[in-house]
Amino acid sequence: MMLNEIALGFVVSPVAMLSYAYVAYPALLRVFARPQTPGRVLEYETWPRVLITVPVYNEERNLAEVLDALLAQDYPPEKRRILVISDASTDRTDAIAREYEQHGVALLRLPRRAGKTAGENAADHVVREEIIVNTDATVRLAPSALRKLVQAFADPTIGVASGRDVSVGAQGTDANRGESGYVGYEMWVRRLETRFGSIVGASGCFYATRRHLYDGRFPEGLSRDFASALIARKAGYRAVSVEDAVCVVPRTTALRAEFRRKVRTMARGLQTLWYMRSLMNPIRYGRFAFSLISHKLCRWAVSLCLVLAVVGLGILSVTQPLARILLGGVVAAGIATIAAMRWSETRRLPSYLSVPVFGIASFAAGVAGWFRALSGRKSAMWEPTRRVAPLPTSRPS
User: Which of 314-323 are b and which e, b meaning 16 or more Cβ less than 10 Å from the residue's Cβ?
Assistant: First the structure.
């Protein structure tokens, strides 16, 4: 009897954890966050010097376009420098970057492939600006995004500022449609966290940090964008989401590629959280620890609880017909998702399937991420997510 009660607890654990992480936590933020008021926007008398880093690996298709877009940003050109960090690219990426030297673009090439974080660490030796902005080669920024992001640092309590991601479709496919809904939800939670005090992770596509918070010795296997908010809080600063700093992020068209990306992201995120686990101490870090545990640990724990739920259903299925039916449903959903992921590579996935398939695949990626993190395996070599750039730009004269 006791075994069945434990098994039932396993079965309901993912529902309870998901309800808290995705529903109750945002509800608590809405209750306790500061009221949203226009307030006075702090302005710079003189805009700070900014270094924009663009880590790349074999991005000859996108690099010229992303550099054009960055050079077109509404920010004083004399206060802005762009650094392309090439992870030992083997195509024309480096040559394209050199073509932009006259426009204030520099190239930092790694002698061998070492990954995104290693490249960012190497950039620490050439930084002489006050603010470091990190962006991606396959996203596009709204014309005023850089100015809006940097403007946040006029508040001396802010150490990290993160842009607002907007996920859009690419190549007319609905295979990964659920990603847009999830990104929109995530940005909403970050708005609430900003009002509550601090976000607990920045967007890897577009975020900025103060120079003295940029650690050139950060472990190469961890996630700097996630850790940036934790490093800032440890140093006594806040990290915020800037609503007007819009970053357009095309959805990946292949669900299998998105699955592999999520596995890497999850594993690196868990390893980063463990590396900076002291920030989860509520006695010392109060509200921030509460948000970090609720937003990251509890949300990631849903996938781990799913494994317990399957174990629980297996135990209950010995005596409970309903458990056998549910277990069969879980197996069928898994098989159907794998089939849908493969099918979507060659043809369009019906829109009514895209959201549930994305959800199941995301939780499955979470399970794989947990096993990778707990096994101590290093994440695979950084492979940039290949996206289709959504916004055309014109090359500077």
Answer: ebbbeebeeb
Contact between residue 48 and residue 131 where contact means Cβ atoms under 8 Å apart: yes
Band (pLDDT 50/70/90 cuts) for residue 245 is very high
CA-closest candidate to residue 116, choices 137, 141, 139? 137
Q: What is the pLDDT of residue 182?
A: 84
The sign one gets for the Cα dihedral 203, 206, 210, 215 is: positive
Q: How far is CA 395 from CA 65, 93, 333, in A?
A: 8, 16, 48
Question: Taking the CB of residue 71, how many other CB atoms lie within 10 A of it?
Answer: 20
Provide the pLDDT for residue 347.
57
**CA-angle at 184, arms to 178 and 188, nearest 5°:** 145
CATH number of 50-253: 3.90.550.10
Q: How far, in Å, CA of 176 to CA of 354, rounded?
A: 6
Distance of CA 148 to CAs 241, 262, 307, 318, Å?
A: 11, 29, 43, 59
| 345-370 residue pLDDT tens | 555 655 656 667 667 777 788 888 88
- Cα 40 to chain centroid, rounded: 29
Q: Which residues of 28-46 are buried (b: 16+ CB within 10 A; e: fewer)?
A: bbeeebeeeeeeeeeeeee
Bridge partners, 107 (sequence order): 84
User: For the segment 184-207, what is each residue's pLDDT rounded down to a tens digit?
Assistant: 999 999 999 999 999 999 998 899
Question: Residue 328: what pLDDT?
Answer: 84
- The pLDDT score that the predictor gives to residue 179 is 73
Q: Which pLDDT value is given to residue 397?
A: 37
Query: For residues 279 and 233, is the Cβ–Cβ distance under 8 A?
Result: yes
The DSSP output letter for 283 is H
Q: Which residues contact 353 (CB under 8 A, 6 or more apart)?
A: 340
Starting at the earlier edge strand, list the strands of the sheet with 131-135. Answer: 105-109, 80-86, 50-56, 131-135, 206-210, 158-168, 238-250, 140-141
